[in-house]
Every structure is written in structure tokens, then in C-alpha cells.
Specification:
Blueprint: H1 5-21, H2 25-38, H3 42-53, H4 58-74, H5 82-86, H6 91-105, H7 108-118, H8 129-143, H9 151-157, H10 163-177
Length: 179
């Protein structure tokens, strides 16, 4: 659906009014991708993500970190402390922070160890692991040859009982091994 500029402005104004008066962070985060597409300002997008990251519930924090990667595709994240998020208590937040860090800085040495550690299923038993493990595997593939320290971990995952994980691990290995 194509909206006129006035319709976009009206939708954004309604969202802002509602968001300012609502403490429902889940709904605010649910609506954020559409608001980004309509031109919601970057600092306000980041504020929604920060609010989500400040929550106690892991699911909300994880979704806020994921949304921050979406915001980062459209807006600079200069005022976000990505280094702090890379060392967050939740593995999913660390994975999404690593993705943001990679896309901004292209420093594999800073994030490959985080991603390798995140793939330790015995250490990270979580309901949300099924969402974050593929992100880590895809990111290692995106990094490519600079992620060669992950080869041993990925070789183990090639035989994972989950065929989707085995496939992602194989694809990441292929990208890392190409010269």
C-alpha cells in the first residue's frame, strides 16, 4: 500500500501520541518496523529499543536487540553502547549486538569469539536459542574467512540433528573456507 506524505505523517503522529501515553513496550516494538518504514525518527526508534532492553523479561530484551539491528539498517546507532551489549547477560542480545558491531565496524576479532561462545548449546539452554543460533551461524558466514576460528565449532554443527542448523553451519563453513 502506498501512502501519501500526509497519510504517513498522520500515522506517525498517531503512533507517537499512543507510544508517549503507553507503557506497553511489547506493542510499541511490534509496531516499530512499520513505523521505521513510515519514517519514524532514528532517535525515537532507538528509544523504543532502549526501553525494550531495559526490561527484565528475556523475550522483550531479545526482541529489542533484534529491532536495534533493523533500526541500524536505516539510522546511525552512534549513541548506542554496542560494546556493552556485546557483553550483555543474555546470549541473544550479545548475538544481535555482534551483528550490529560487524555491520558498523567490520572487526571480526571483536565478535567472532562472542559468536563461537554463543553456539555452545550446553551452556545456552534457552527457549529462544532456536531464534538466535541461526543468526549467529549466518553472521559467521557473512564474516567469511576472518571467522576461521569458528571452523571447529561449525564442523561439529554440520552434524546437528536439526537439518536447518546443519545446513546453516555447512554454508557458514563454505563461506569461511573460500579464499
Amino acid at each position: 500500500m502506498n501512502l501519501s506524505d500526509s497519510e504517513k505523517s498522520r500515522a506517525l503522529a498517531l503512533f507517537e501520541t499512543w507510544a508517549d501515553n503507553s507503557a506497553r513496550i511489547f506493542v510499541r516494538m511490534l509496531l516499530l518496523p512499520a513505523m521505521i518504514d513510515l519514517g519514524f525518527p532514528g532517535e525515537k526508534c532507538i528509544a523504543v529499543c532502549r526501553s525494550g532492553l531495559s526490561q527484565v523479561e528475556v523475550y522483550l530484551r531479545l526482541q529489542a536487540a533484534r529491532l536495534l539491528t533493523v533500526v541500524g539498517d536505516k539510522h546511525p546507532l552512534n549513541e548506542v553502547d554496542i560494546e556493552k551489549l556485546i557483553h550483555d547477560r543474555d546470549v541473544g542480545v550479545r548475538i544481535y549486538a555482534a551483528k550490529i558491531h560487524w555491520r558498523k565496524n567490520r572487526q571480526a576479532a571483536a565478535i567472532v569469539p562472542v559468536l563461537i561462545e554463543s553456539l555452545d548449546r550446553a551452556k545456552h539452554q534457552s527457549y529462544y536459542y532456536v531464534e538466535t543460533q541461526p543468526v549467529a551461524l549466518s553472521l559467521l558466514g557473512e564474516i567469511g574467512p576472518e571467522a576461521r576460528d569458528a571452523i571447529g565449532t561449525l564442523e561439529k554443527l554440520v552434524n546437528d540433528p536439526n537439518p536447518a542448523i546443519a545446513k546453516l553451519a555447512s554454508e557458514a563453513l563454505a563461506k569461511i573456507r573460500r579464499q
